[in-house]
Amino acid sequence: MEGSGFDELIQRLMDAKKSKASGKKVQLSELEIRSLCATAKGVFLSQPVLLELEAPINICGETTCSGDVHGQFSDLLRLFEYGGVPPTSNYLFLGDYVDRGKQSIETICLLLAYKIKYPDNFFLLRGNHECASINRIYGFYDECKRRFSVRLWRLFTDCFNCLPVAAIVDDKIFCMHGGLSPELQTMDQVREIERPVDVPDQGLLCDLLWSDPDREIKGWADNDRGVSYTFGADRVAEFLRKHDLDLICRAHQVSAVLFSFTFFPPKQQLCSSNGLRVMVVVQVVEDGYEFFADRQLVTIFSAPNYCGEFNNAGALMSVDASLLCSFQILKPYRGKPGGVSG
């Protein structure tokens, strides 16, 4: 598929927000998705496994630093409404683009198409669900098989095995999907991860995609997920000090913020942590993001009303050129499931 073909694909996917039939599948062919995966794979391999990025940038979680999107296509479109459509805004997504949502294929296709069109403005990190052994179970395999073929799922797997696994923004913000690893001593260890690679059951790559912070511990402890570790605030402070960083930005958890309600006065509130300024421009912060270790780590989750079962908000974090971080909150959609609201 030529560049103009990807432009048309992006337009077709973005036009879904105009449809009155919320959650309607976008017409896609297996041939164009195969071309999309092959082209995106080449783009990923042409860039480092540890990205070194510059602000301003949006970060999205679990999707501008973004957290998890988890196949919630209508909410991905809302994120672009809030943060700006590429390339007017730079984006970093922190992984978990598939599974659990109803339109994982539309979600990942739009993200891959934007990556191909704007390779130096649009970045995708690998999450633990960009792994065959996980998305084989949690919905993406079944969606591919039902709508297209198992062969297409394997092509997505080949593409996911080439995704970068971490990013550093302006030498100060370290981003990944999961968290820290007891094996991580130097950034060169991340740079030396060879791709394509499947996610192992243990070790550095596993931890970067699976580990979690834990307020109840110091040091390291076994993770209740049965994979990787949890780490305490002391490990965060030690890691930042050793590597001259200000903030760790990660995704991977919605449960950590489901019942966190922090009230601020109805005005901007500024705080400082290791020279990094954080600005919250909301009156009531519910879900979407949560700080840890004296604001030295932030968890971002960008899929509101996760799986249609949790009344959580989603969040998008924007980092400006001076490393001022601001959050936009995406409230759960109150209309029909899967609909788009501003």
Largest sheet: 6 strands, mixed
User: Uncertain segments of ≥5 residues (pLDDT<50)?
Assistant: 63-67, 255-285, 336-342
N- to C-terminal distance = 33 Å
CATH C-level label: Alpha Beta
Rough outline: globular
- Strand content bin: 15-25%
Structural class: alpha/beta
Main-sheet strand order equals 1-6-7-11-17-16
Number of distinct helices: 10
Q: Count all strands and give the number.
A: 19
Q: Over all CA atoms, what is the radius of gyration?
A: 19 Å
**Helical amount among residues, as a percent range?**
25-40%
CATH homologous superfamily descriptor: Metallo-dependent phosphatases
Q: Please, what is the average pLDDT?
A: 85
SSE order: HHEEEHEHEHHHEEHHEEEHEEEEEEEEE
Short overview:
The protein has 342 residues and is α/β, with parallel strands linked by helices. Helix content is 29%, strand content 22%.
Structure in words:
By secondary structure, the protein is of the alpha/beta class. It has a single domain, classed as 4-Layer Sandwich (Purple Acid Phosphatase, chain A, domain 2), CATH 3.60.21.10. Helix content is 29%, strand content 22%. The chain is built from ten helices and 19 strands. The strands form five sheets. Strands 1-6-7-11-17-16 form a six-stranded mixed β-sheet. Strands 3-2-18-19-14-13 form a six-stranded mixed β-sheet. It has a three-stranded mixed β-sheet with strand order 8-10-9. A hairpin with a 3-residue loop joins strand 6 (166-169) and strand 7 (173-176). The chain is globular and about 50 Å long. The model is unreliable at 63-67, 255-285 and 336-342 (pLDDT under 50). Pfam families: Metallophos, STPPase_N.
